[in-house]
Amino acid sequence: MGSYGLATHIWNNNLKSILLLAGFPILLLLLNYGLNVGFVGLMRDDLTPGEGLSLAFQYMQQSWPFAFIGAAIWFLIAWVSYQSLINLSTGARGVTRDEEPELYNLLENLCISRGITTPRLSIIDSPAMNAFASGLSDRNYSITLTRGLVDALDHDEIEAVMGHELTHIRNRDVRLLMVAVIFVGIFSFIGELVFRNMFGTGVRVGGHSSSRKGDSRGGGVLILVAIALIALAYLLAMVIRFSLSQKREYLADAGSVELTKKPDAMISALQKISGHSTIDAPDEVRQMMIENSARFAGVFATHPPVEKRIAALETYAAGRAPSPAHSQVASGPWD
Which of 293, 259, 261 is nearest to 276 (CA)? Predict the structure, then answer.
């Protein structure tokens, strides 16, 4: 069940992800149109809804190049500074070989066995148990572990977690997820800004005076349409982001088994992590972690349930879940 052996599945998964990411320009146009509708609704209360929508479309034809230029600037800034932002939001810090020799030896041995460039290693001083990979190329890939995970898991289990994260790097999951997060950031930033300003300043629907009787509600209707369009663009962007993760976690679990040849270690690591993985970090970063139990509005899950991941390892990797006593967190590190 090795992830590297499932080349067709990985290729199909990446193709679907690329197609999903290709929808972002369409969503950006939808967002741009929604903003123009809102602008017309606020500035021109003398128009009927139909006239306002038509005028907003004309404005969009003029403004869309600037929207794409702004998105490109946003993307370039995020591309350059993403790791600093992740470290700032999670408290992660890079560690040297002198500080964590055992971790570095584990990581290097796994990379040497597959001819993978060794990523940098970082630690988050948190009692939670979690891990994630980040980066956009071989020169700046990084694997981050929490102190709680390092202290609670034994040698084989930490090796399995590292194998999971290395598989995300090898399968190009990390780069695709980070590109998706950067683009979704555009929609979430603008959406929150618009709604906060609208409701924070008390904008009233249909509250403007008008020189044309019967048309005074045109501006209010346009504002409602704008809110709906912006919300739709944001929600669709979130759906795209969430849809990129679930199958990748199964493949990364499988890749860890192929790297380490220890399916039981991957299973016991997931058992220990489950229920102890919550970490104070932005949703975008938690999506990249080995376990994320958070849900968006109780509907979308970025990761499949741990129970299903363990069942897959038992079925396809000949793994066997350890007894409940063995899976207790209190075993201590490097047993």
Answer: 293
